[in-house]
Amino acid sequence: MANEKGAATRAGDGAETRDWQACVRDMSRNGAIEREHGTEKYFWRQDAREVVASVVVAPGTRARDVEVGVDARRLRVRVRDASGEMRDVFDAEWAYEIAPEARDDEDEDAAAAPTYGDWEITDFEGYGGRARRVVRVTARKKSSDVIKHWWRLCFKGATEVDPGTFEDRNATAAASARRAWEEAQDAFRERVKNRELIEVEANE
Q1: What is the per-residue pLDDT across 106-135, written as a single tens digit (0 to 9) for each?
Q2: Which listed CATH number (3.40.50.620, 3.40.710.10, 2.60.120.260, 2.60.40.790) goes with 20-158?
Q3: pTM of the entire predicted model
Q4: Where are the alpha helices (DSSP H) in the chain?
Q5: pLDDT, tens only, 30-44
Q6: What angle do CA 67, 85, 43 make, to 5 degrees?
Q7: Domain residue spans in the chain?
């Protein structure tokens, strides 16, 4: 599914200006910014269940000029150039396998091919025709419901990131540690309250 978000307007044009630095931070939350020749190639972010890859495309790129191919192993983004030809701007393997999207209709043909991910195109810096744009692809991680899998990288061959630096992971770990400590304390107090006294003879 494709969607296009319009550019924000400058203050005085009836809308508030965007905080582009915050936008960039959001696109790399619990992830990273991958650069090529000093220029951003893509951003990636994640939470416990989803990963979002934002591939940088040329200013002025419209959704109708974009083709996105997503499967369990790979992401491919193609954009129509000035001559009308579709050109690859991104083609890489996911570092980890992703899961298919849930089906909306329970009666849908079970033999139909699964679909993976959802995408939109949006600005991430600047205004109007010169605004820098990204194709943003959201995919579901393939993981257990009881285990949170924090990715170290989004695509094979990229630089790994230390999960210990992830803001959301640290917050989750701290909350889990607090809960474990409180449960251990409650269990200890319960054992002390219910223990039986044992009589022993003291040596004179």
Answers
A1: 556 666 788 999 999 999 998 888 899 999
A2: 2.60.40.790
A3: 0.73
A4: 20-27, 167-194
A5: 999 999 999 999 999
A6: 40
A7: 20-158, 162-195
